[in-house]
Amino acid sequence: MMSQAERVEMHFKAPVKLVSLKVVPEGGAPLPLSIDRSAPATEHIMVKLPKLKPAAYQVNWKAMGPDGHMMNGSYGFMQH
Are 4 and 80 a contacting pair, CB within 8 Å? Predict the structure, then answer.
């Protein structure tokens, strides 16, 4: 039995400020997430997820580096 995904975690080499984070199920709308945009820059970002239904999910993120440059990325995962 696979465990339920409880959070999105990302680690960076330098502190960043999270600008945007979307978790989107295949064929669906982005999940409601609680993101503290006033949080200080950090090397470790963690955002709790709501209970997920079995599906493929895409994580899309944007962050601002310590010098103000923007960066972004995405990755996928499966919830069984």
Answer: no
Question: Which tokens hold the place of 22?
Answer: 């979307």
pTM over cut 0.85: yes
Domains belonging to the chain, first-starting first, are 7-79 (2.60.40.1220)
pLDDT at 1: 52
Residue 63: other Cβ atoms inside 10 A: 21
Residue 43 CA to residue 63 CA, distance in Å, equals 11
Strand locations in 7-69 (E):
7-25, 42-48, 55-64
pLDDT in tens, 25-43: 999 999 999 999 899 999 9
